[in-house]
Amino acid sequence: MIDWLQRFYDTYKFEVHEGLFFSGFVMFGVVVKTIRALQKGTKLSFAWFFSESLISFFIALFVYAVVDQFFQLKPLFTYAICALLGSMSTIVNKKLEELLETAFDSAKSGISDLFKALVEKIKPKKS
Questions:
Q1: How far apart are CA 86 and CA 64, in angstroms?
Q2: CA 56 to CA 25: how far, in whole Å?
Q3: Cβ contacts of residue 18 below 8 Å, gap of 6+?
Q4: How far apart are CA 100 and CA 49, in angstroms?
Q5: Are residues 31 and 53 in contact, defined by beta-carbon separation less than 8 angstroms?
Q6: 68 contact partners, CB below 8 Å, separation of at least 6
Q7: CB contact at 8 A, 25 and 81
Q8: How far is CA 71 from the centre of its chain?
Q9: Angle at the Cα of 46 from the Cα atoms of 40 and 50, rounded to 5 degrees
Q10: What is the pTM of this model?
Q11: Distance (Å, rounded) from C-alpha 77 to C-alpha 15?
């Protein structure tokens, strides 16, 4: 087992280091987020910390994919951006929620207007 791990590490040394740096930076962002939440009076629990860590990790992973693909910055700077946006995942989540709410309200009013127009078109005219 140890031999397999050693061969894996030797083969993917760069990727392992990148993954550890990325995870470390994201966890620093989660710690910053936790400190902010404690200052605001949030009751801290393991479930809260785990869910925030998971959300922050996926947002940071998405940011990493975009920033690394399109901007090709230095890795540590990219990780810092990922940690920053991962720590602001609550803000991103709220903005996404507002965007979806607006989109659904617009679709709802559009469908309502469409049905009203169809009913008016189908309704027999009184003479």
A1: 10
A2: 11
A3: 75
A4: 25
A5: no
A6: 78
A7: no
A8: 19
A9: 90
A10: 0.61
A11: 17
Q: DSSP characters for 24-87? A: HHHHHHHHHHHHHHHHTTPPP-HHHHHHHHHHHHHHHHHHHHHHHHHT---HHHHHHHHHHHHH
Token representation of residue 54: 């998971």
CA nearest neighbour of 82 among 98, 59, 107: 59
Residue 98 per-residue DSSP state? H
Instruction: Give Cα 56 to chain centroid, integer Å.
Output: 6
- Residue 61: CB atoms within 10 A of its CB come to 14
Tokens in use for 90?
A: 């609550």
Tokens of 80: 């810092």
**Residues 17-69: tens digit of each pLDDT:** 988 988 898 888 888 888 888 898 888 888 888 888 888 888 888 888 888 88
